[in-house]
Amino acid sequence: MENTDGISLVGGDASARKMKKSRRCKHAIYNDHFQNFKRYALPKAQLVIADIPYNIGKNAYGSNPSWYVGGDNKNGQSELAGKNFFDTDVNFNINEFMHFCSNLLVKEPKETGKAPCMIVFCSHMQQFGLIDLAKKHGFKGSIPLVFYKNFSPQVLKANMRIVGNCEYAVLFYRDKLPKFNNNGKMVFNAMPWPREQVSKIHPTQKPVMLLQQLIALFTDPGEVVVDPCCGSGSTIIAAKRSGRSGYGFEIKKSFHRDAIKWLHQEGSQGSFLDVLDSAIA
Ligand SMILES: C[S@@+](CC[C@H](N)C(=O)[O-])C[C@H]1O[C@@H](n2cnc3c(N)ncnc32)[C@H](O)[C@@H]1O
To answer: Is the CB of 255 inside a 6 Å radius of any atom of ligand 1?
Structure first.
């Protein structure tokens, strides 16, 4: 299976043996802090994908038309004006997050081409702080990733300034370059952001197609992907669609409930014969 950029959605070596392994995948989303991961005996992960809270505070919708009723300032402010994206977007403990990731990723292998990695979606401002902190937790290497949209959510005052159409992430690895299923093709660090027509569960929900591309690049079928703060569960859905195991944590009850619903819907469509192990705490 290939997407429009020619990045395989299944992974480089989609051998029958690997596909068989992928049929035994498990998927779970825990309504808990990732800090409590020891309760759940998670297997070690080949890839962590995390979209950490941006701690933007009360101006999360600052340049977005939804600040106003119907997107028009003549109508006055909407209920989103002066609000956080979500009320758990505060006091995120980034040190504990790094500790979790370095604990949960598989050990650095002796061979090249097999090392694990983590991808952290973050705000433009968070990138350098994250790179410094990650070094203290053993992640010596990093690669910046930029995802460009063909639209902008920041169109207020668009005739007065440049508007943003990018999302940022940093890929971290310890010593060896991470596993890379690129089929011998060059992969640019600026990638298109696919626009998906799905009803959103989470205000900062990531497109499943994009997450599948990342999963396919850095893991093989049957391996484990973990998302410590998984919101809508998009990463776990992407892992499932790609034949990888996926484990996520989400503290907000309403997001967790909807994420579990989505995972169950996927289960009934059953693209892979997996064991559905979704936990509701
Ligand atoms: C930026 S959102 C993730 C959105 C997700 N990538 C998606 O596509 O839906 C971050 C999420 O982390 C959750 N969160 C914050 N602190 C957490 C923690 N300590 N453990 C687990 N989840 C946490 C928040 O409730 C929020 O839903």
So the answer is: yes
Q: What is the pLDDT of residues 36-67, one digit of tens each?
A: 999 999 999 999 999 998 765 555 555 666 65
CATH assignment of 16-53+91-152+165-276, given 3.40.50.150, 3.90.1150.10, 3.30.2130.10, 3.30.1490.20? Answer: 3.40.50.150
- Which structure tokens are listed for 254? 């309403």
Question: String of b and e for 25-44 (b: at least 16 CB within 10 Å)?
Answer: bbbbbbbbebeebeeeebee
The closest-lying atom of ligand 1 relative to the alpha carbon of residue 252 is 25
Distance (angstroms) between ligand 1 centre and the Cα of 202 equals: 9
Name the pTM for this structure.
0.82
235 Cα nearest atom in ligand 1: 8
Ligand 1: does its nearest atom lie under 6 Å from the Cβ of 219? no
Helix, strand, or coil (residue 157): coil
Dist CA 179 CA 231 (whole Å): 26
